[in-house]
Design a protein that fits this description.
InterPro entries: ATPase_NBD, Type_III_PanK. The chain is of the alpha/beta class and 246 residues long. It has seven helices and 13 strands. Helix 4 (146-156) crosses helix 5.
Length: 246
């Protein structure tokens, strides 16, 4: 059994694989593991391997490494960005500077599509990465996610204090401050994504907690994949280091 973990800034997702079949999965707040709580691996009796993609900091690696060593007697394999995996090359001059979550998503998408793609991860931040038809990762863009865009207005103005999730038709002008802020933030992100897809004549692939929301507002065809980062951990040739548990 292989445990795969995606530790993001807000949530940690995990799944248990038997071969290529998903047999269990779960998630919890990243803050809980940062605070010393174990990953709640309910129903997991034994493991042969554990893989992690994380952007959540060294404490998550240390805490998970200790748990897996003590609970299952295995070492945690921590995914790293490399210059090349198979036919996919990293677009950063210093590959280690690229977020590993972005790299995992890029690898997963190219394995699935084999063509030019715009890869969108809509989480706390929205990352957009470009891949060419021959597997060259060209780099990308990072912008605030919906919540961070809202918070920038809360902090920068005295009268705009809203906390509203998106609903209704985003193209209808907001009839309240709450709607105006939320719909404006969503459409800003949609416009960026669709412009890049059109400019590069590429397919759009979206993941992340706000991925379905953004996809629903697009005129362009887009594919939503819930677990691109976890999928990337399974790509042949991914580089791993061992997490320390002491």
């Amino acid at each position: 059994m292989i445990l795969q973990i995606d530790a993001g800034n807000t949530r940690i997702k995990w799944r248990l694989l038997n071969g290529s079949q998903i047999v269990l999965q779960g998630n919890q707040l990243t803050a809980s593991v940062l605070g010393g709580e174990p990953l709640q691996l309910l129903g997991v009796a034994a493991l042969t391997q554990a893989q992690l993609s994380t952007v959540a900091g060294d404490a998550v690696v240390t805490n998970l490494s200790r748990q897996l060593h003590d609970q299952f007697g295995i070492a945690l394999q921590v995914a790293e960005v490399s210059a090349q995996v198979g036919s996919v090359s990293c677009g950063y001059s210093v590959p280690e500077k690229l977020g590993v979550d972005r790299w995992m998503a890029v690898l997963a998408v190219f394995q699935q599509t084999g063509r030019a793609s715009v890869v969108v991860d809509a989480g706390s931040a929205v990352t957009v990465d470009l891949i060419t038809d021959d597997g060259v990762h060209q780099g990308g863009y990072i912008v605030p996610g919906i919540r961070l865009l809202q918070e920038s207005l809360w902090k920068g103005t005295s009268q705009v204090k809203v906390d509203q999730s998106a609903d209704g038709n985003m193209l209808d002008p907001g009839a309240s401050t709450e709607q105006a802020v939320t719909r404006g933030c969503v459409l800003m992100l949609v416009a960026l994504i669709e412009r890049l897809g059109k400019e590069h004549n590429a397919c759009l692939v979206i993941t992340g907690g706000d991925g379905l929301l953004l996809k629903a507002q697009m005129e362009a065809q887009a594919t939503y994949c819930a677990d691109l980062v976890l999928d990337g951990l399974s790509v042949k040739g991914v580089s791993f280091s061992l997490g320390a548990h002491r």
